[in-house]
Amino acid sequence: MYTAGVDVGAITAKAAIFNDEGLLATALILTGYNRADAGVARMLEEKLGHTISVPEQAQLAGHRRSAHRPGLTMKSGRQIDVQPETPPTRQPIAGSLQSVVRKLQSAACNLQSKGNPQPTIGFLTAYVPEELLHAAGLTPVFVFHTREDTGRARAHLPNSTCWVAGSALDQALSGKLDGLAGLVVAQTCDTMQGLSNIWRRNVAHIPLLHFGMPQRLDGRATRTYLLAELRSLRQRIQALTGGVISDDALWESVALYGNTRALVRRVYAQAAEFAPPDLYALVRAAFQTPKETFNEYVTPLLEQPAIPPDGKSAAPSAHLLLVGSELGDPVLFDVITQAGGCIVGDLLDLGERYFEGDAAAGSKQRSAPAAGDPLEALCDRMLTRVPTPTKHHAQTNRAARLLSLVQKRSADGVIFARQKFCEPHGFDYAVLADALDRAGVPHLLVELEQASQADQLRTRLEAFLEML
Fold this sequence. Notes:
Rossmann fold; 4-stranded parallel beta sheet; disordered N terminus
């Protein structure tokens, strides 16, 4: 066995490893290569004693599972073609995927205008019972943070506040959320608790409803407490809308949301077949589009058969899992695609764990209301999901869930996408990273901020994928 490597400016070629018969054992890594830099390949040829031919397009190739990488041909006496058979990938039929994404984006609720088909109510954190809001005739929409900063929130929040909370307040103070009939915030961290108090004082035109989600999910009094909070929230929503939330209406909403969750679970089951930005767009749409519309558009999309790839695009170089809070920054998903990776699952607060499980009854047939108390069904589902870092459940271990996902999805590595100044996820990272280290799973921590970090993210992700 022998290796050779060369580094010329921004172009790096390394780790070309051959066995004694001159056959490729580990893939060549070419970063930033193009035809104008053919001297790099010639220098490698001299060191290796092998002829290297490289395609016209710039390559990013790294070792993953198979030593053969697409788009690289090496010759040693006889030609060795190292272009693997690309696994089937879901390709758009006449642009159907892009068409569905565009329709979902067009149907997303306008948070600044009250011209939506139904009154829209915003919510923050991963523990708001959306079904209660929907049964009251409202359309729940998560308030994602944006890159825009008018500076208005800075007058009320310290600089060490995460931008998830800061952006929500900034949008409200600048009139970007005037289309909301209200905002529901479930208790999670100290920052959200403080935001609730500041909101009531400074954004009085958008009523805030605070939902006391318990911190410990396995306590003896937890279920009793949570049921009382659900009943209290039901009464306050009725007071806000002036209507009555009947059990039948609530069961219908439970069924509708059960259908939506089933669709998103199917999306995650096929996650590797979608480019990361498309996966991001579909999941995020489930938080911004009326559920009836989401179900109508996504159902036929998932019924399509997988289409063999056209051979024009290389297979992803790494299968990745994401860990973090929410899907607020699309730049991360774009950079993962550009670096040659794909997402096969996640442990995001508003990701796969958010859509797992259904209420015990009423989740199959919307037209047939179930018997029993729908609030108990909502309560039990909220207590049995994998907790976020702000909650505790002795029998549900986040580290065990992450390691299970790594194994089930054959993930090559894990990316921790942590919002800067998010303390709960900072503490969670220490525990999960230790578990991954002991299991020998590579991982990378990136901190997301308000300002775009595309170049920095791209550099770090490319280096991480090369390591894999």
